[in-house]
Amino acid sequence: MSAKSAETGDRPQGPAEVEVVLVKAGRVKIRYPGVLVSDDGTRVTVRARWASEGVRDFGFVRFEPGDLFTEHYWRDRWYSVKEVRDAGGTLKGWYCDVTRPATRSGTDLVVEDLDLDLWRSADGTDVRRLDEDEFEASGLAHTDPGAAAAALAALDELERLAREGGFESLLS
Questions:
Q1: Least crowded by CB within 10 Å, which of 45, 127, 128, 168?
Q2: pLDDT tens by residue, 74-124
């Protein structure tokens, strides 16, 4: 601690913590802590560890304790892109959620999940759309046709980016 901070009682500044709040169908699905990496007013980037205690095995990828997610959220886009690395730092791939644009209030980063997801493996050989059946069952196309159209367009954009070489241009 510096002499100035000791005199004034100021605490040293560390990384800003945020709480990612994932909402689905009007209810909080999960909340978890993360560290704010950046917020440029449009894109918010957060780093967080796998939020569940156990392993989630999708068959094509396993999320497990120790995995590190670098999560990118936009205030003007209908998706988030999450780079997933194992505890040793090896890239597993990217998991993308179709969401309404993110909002940030204080330390809360709130995103509404719209059921559609996309996975891209680290080597790019596995690109798959996920949960289209859940999206259909949600009824969003009937209750909010504009949001449903934006969600489907977002999934198409994510798939195009994933197949054309990845998300580097989007995340740089």
A1: 168
A2: 999 999 999 999 999 999 999 999 999 999 999 999 999 999 999 999 999
Sequence-distant (≥ 6) Cβ neighbours of residue 86 within 8 angstroms: 64, 66, 67, 68, 92
3-class DSSP assignment, residue 124? coil
The whole model's pTM is what? 0.89
Sign, CA dihedral 127-100-24-16, equals: positive
The residues, any chain, with a CB within 8 Å of residue 87's CB and separated by 6 or more, are 65, 66, 67, 68
Identity of the amino acid at 160:
R
Tokens found for residue 156 = 């198409």
Nearest partner of 48 among 62, 65, 68, judged by Cα: 68
Residue 49 CA to residue 160 CA, distance in Å, equals 28
